[in-house]
Design goal:
Layout: H1 6-18, H2 23-32, H3 37-57, H4 63-69
Helix pairs in contact: 2-3
């Protein structure tokens, strides 16, 4: 894991704590895990990190801006200028 990826994992951890997962992504992970919730969580995390990276690289909202849009707190230790 690259040090710059940590903020994505922090955000995803907050999504789990707040029970605010991306529905379609969770359903995909759960389906691919054949209903095994532990495996689904691991798949979801991997998919979500890739989704957040892709959005940021495409010039879309940063992870922190996406969290703010959903009404959540930004990831701990995250800075708006991080890229």
């Amino acid at each position: 894991m690259a040090p710059s990826d940590q903020r994505f994992y922090d955000l995803i951890a907050e999504e789990f704590r707040a029970r605010r997962l991306v529905d379609g992504l969770w359903i995909r992970a759960f389906s691919e895990a054949a209903g095994d919730e532990s495996k689904a969580r691991a798949l979801y995390i991997g998919y979500r990190v890739e989704q957040l990276k892709a959005a940021e690289e495409a010039g879309h909202a940063t992870a922190e801006q996406q969290a703010a849009f959903r009404g959540e707190a930004a990831a701990p230790g995250a800075c708006e200028g991080d890229a």
